[in-house]
Amino acid sequence: MHGLAPTQRLLMIDGADDCHPLVTVLKDAGWTVHDKTLDSASDADYDVGLIHLKADHFEHLHELEERFPRSNMRWIAVLSADDLRREKIGDFVCRWFFDFHTLPFDVNRLQASLEKALIKVDPAPPASSTGPELLGESRPIRELRRLLSKLAPIDSPVLIRGERGAGKELIARSLHAQSRRRDK
Predict the structure, then answer these.
(1) DSSP 3-state assignment of 74?
(2) CB–CB of 182/176 below 8 Å?
(3) In what order do the strands lie in the sheet with 74-79?
(4) pTM for this model (two decimals)
(5) One domain for residues 101 and 157
(6) Closest CA to 75 of 54, 102, 104, 46
(7) SS3 121
């Protein structure tokens, strides 16, 4: 992380006291850090976004949901472990964020997450003549590809639910094709 050029720009939303000790560490690692409120932030000039989710955000999740699809950067959420356990909040974080961190911070893990967030690759696997392919560019398909790319590196069982004919098997094959176990 120390080899990054100082052009790596982090937008920190509602950092509060919990996030401010990180600023020095991140600046030393080559990041330019700007702390703003959600209302005053424009994500056009940043590479990665870090938002400290708090109670007032939880009351207005729909506003955040409207913001993220328009954003060209990857977002990392910061929240308490208790908040993450809340069903609606946990689902929201898994759906909209590239990664999340609970307080207190593990600085090394956060730096690794930021580095990974900089790698802007298409989460869809390369199409092959034998592998499963998710066709289309609709918002739900893009969200599904993003979710699959987040789940693929995790060596853990995944439950795929849905009605008959919804494409569960296609999703399972696509997830497996992106996983580390694809050759097994």
Answers:
(1) strand
(2) yes
(3) 31-36, 8-13, 48-52, 74-79, 99-102
(4) 0.62
(5) no
(6) 46
(7) coil
Q: Which of 71, 94, 118 is the last residue of a domain?
A: 118
Task: Quote the mean pLDDT of the chain.
Answer: 80
- Domain carrying residue 138: 122-184
Convert the pLDDT of each residue in 107-152 to its tens digit: 889 988 898 888 764 444 444 434 467 787 788 888 888 888 888 8
The CA distance from 156 to 138, in Å, is 28
Q: For residues 122 and 176, give the distance between their C-alpha atoms in angstroms, rounded to a whole number.
A: 17
* One domain, residues 111 and 137: no
Residue carrying structure tokens 């497996």: 176
Report in angstroms the alpha-carbon separations of 148 from 23, 127, 182: 31, 15, 14
* Domain contains 94: yes
pLDDT tens figures, 22-34: 888 999 988 999 8
Instruction: Judge whether 51 and 83 are in contact, CB under 8 Å.
Output: no
Is residue 111 located within the same domain as residue 24? yes
pLDDT mean over 70-75: 78
The residue among 138, 140, 128 whose CA lies nearest residue 173 is 128
Tokens of 39: 């209302």
Let me know: does 26 contact 10? Beta carbons within 8 Å.
Answer: yes
State the residue for tokens 């052009």. 7
